[in-house]
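Lecture 7, part B: from sequences to assemblies.

Below are the input chains for today's worked example.
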Amino acid sequence: MISRVADHCFWLGRYLERAESTARLLQVTRALAFDAELPPLHCWRPLVIVSGQYPEFSAKLGGESAGNGEVVQRYMTWAPENPVSIRCSVRAAREGARSIREVIGGDIWQATNELYLWFMGEAAASQYLQDRDEVYREIRRGTQLCLGLVRSTMLHDEPMDFLWLGVLLERIGQTARTLDMHHHIQGAAEGQGPLLQTALWLSLLRACSGFEAFMRRQQGRVSRDAAVSFLLFEARFPRSLRYCVRSALALARRLAAATAKKGTAAALARLEGLDRWLDTQEQAGIPLSVHALLTHVVEEASLACDELQQGLGGEDTVKVAQPEAAQ
Amino acid sequence: MLTETKPPTVTGIPATLLNGYHALDGTYDELVEANGATRQHANMVAHLLEKMTPDTFARCQALAELALAQRGVTFSVYSDERGTEKVMPVCLVPRVIAATEWARLERGLVQRMTALQMFLDDLYGEQRLLAERVIPSELIHGSKQYLPRLRGLRPPGGVRIHIAGIDLIRSPDGVLRVLEDNLRTPSGVSYVIENRLITKRVFPTAMDRIGVRRVDDYPTQLVERLRSVSPVDPERSTIVVLTPGPFNSAYFEHSFLARSMGIELVEASDLFVHGDEVFVRTTAGPRPVHVIYRRTDDAFIDPEFFRPDSMLGVPGLMRAWAAGRVTLANAPGNGVADDKAIYPFVPDIIRFFLGEEPIIEQVPTRVCAKREDRAYVLEHLGEMVVKAVDEAGGYGMLMGPQSTEAERAGFRDRILADPRRYIAQHRIELSTCPTWVAADRRLEPRRIDLRPYIVTGRKPTGEMDTWVLPGGLTRVALRAGSYVVNSSQGGGSKDTWVEAAPA
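Predicted structure of the full complex, as structure tokens:
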């Protein structure tokens, strides 16, 4: 497949996953801010921090605005200057889909285009004012539809592998960041009653779409170690770091075998390293502060992304012996 | 009676769509005759419209427009902000062409293409045509699209015009005439296929009764012909569509064609040339490419050959083509044959190469490079349509009867400064077709043209293999009184129904 197209596939996966994840996080934080006895700043600021945009946010809107749920939501949903806002992700996903439409097929393109047209149109803007929750739900439904169509309509070969690798690497980053965000919130809620602690863990699980799955695994027993361990190591939960790293590894293996790109091989080696590292962490048990662990995971995942991408953009070494047979 | 329209409703009975519709004075209407009677081959469409109320039609029309937006059937407009996309406006009332008329047109189009292919071969070869003074050689050498450096080169596969779009208009006498040829990168065929998808949903019964010829096999017909002119074994050939990228106005179509032919869509940066061979960069390393359906202008094919200062294009591509290692569709250098100043000579070209009379008429044309024609044009600027020979899309054009004094003065200066660059024709009263006017919720006559698409390859026996897509793109000037049908200038399109030949 054409290298430029592979790069577009990878990013389409990332943007779709990012839009879904951002919408989910906003939805959950909003619910948390309504219920819990936490000051708004402690609910909303961590969200901006883990998005990586806190310096830009506070420079433009002032650090205290991070305690204003409306400002944060507007910034994370609509701001064109925020590169990780839902608006930017949806637009970038749609632009990407448009330029590889012949590879992803009509259904996925149309679903992405419809999501974009709806989100940028009157309907979403007025619904945002009247029924906020429904807007987030609709964004999630739209992106989930696209991702579902990826698996059910695309050929399961290289383009889909690149796309799904993008989804998984983005998801690793998102789950790690969400977990880290709760690390911030928990820190702020230190010393408060166990009820609030439980509410926060449940909210974390919801933010990762893992509430029901967790409850089934744990039969209702909620504890810090159980929740953290579930999101880090549960091999059968599709948003746990363990699951995402292993699945990404499998895709990277397949791609490294099929492609002649140094970048793919480097990304594969890095993911293998990360997988082994997670093994040793799991054996050592849940550390008191998971922050360091998460930082390492986020860094490694983002390095793997860089390597993969550099590999795709780079020059081919021309070794022209005999023209190969056409497919 | 002819200038007034009847009030649209009689109390209690909803107005139907054809109430009060009649042809414009002095203009041929594709659906109704001057006396108001429906043309016979279009009876089914008239019945259909008579059964519809403005409400039902408006609903269908809205659904169609929504479907096009959601499917992303858009084009970009150059004069707008970079990257602005618009939905191609479509009017659901189809244009119908009778089977007998189509059969004749088809023969005429094949004849024209055959002669133009021979003309290009001759021009880039022996130049008998110039030796025998069928065309003044200064006209050829004055064409910016003529590439003398290509003389003596035969394109791999032997075909030069793989894809052509010929613009036809119908004059008030009912005669369809060629208005211009597009032999470089004609666009619009994707709208033909998309429009059909929509009318099939809206008018299933009528289509079934009339027996409308299908258009959806265009991609298959095209890809087979592209394969047939590959420099290597057709079955082992890699074919790609080359696009300037997502910001190009016709990007939707490039993607559509690649998708429906099942081949890769590439940008220039995806290709490179090594040792006269063309490769595409893939994740599995370089892969040879044999046929390129390029949707880029000649000037942006190869910076080595055309514009040493340019970064656009694939360096070395022309070398590979000259070495016979890759087929370019269409071949470079075709522009000289669709130069508007060469157009008036096409009937002579047909006679010269085929020894036949042209089957399709043309529009009488004045070539400003000729002194007597120039004098005539300058004297009659207010009645004529003046066109720059190297512009398309409705740009660089003076519509004399609708022009201002200042516009005419501007064109006068330009013609005198560079007469070779201009031609002029008397304005033709283009035929009309009933067209939905949303603001008034009714049908009104609007001017249309027709662009059939012709694709050419080679049969295994070596002879040319030309196929004409039944119908083509009907473009419509949506503004009242307008004669400009280009999508970039407020034009829309209609589905074109070619009546199936009687069994």
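Note for the exam: Residues 315-327 of chain A have pLDDT under 50 and may be disordered. Keep this in mind when comparing with the next example.
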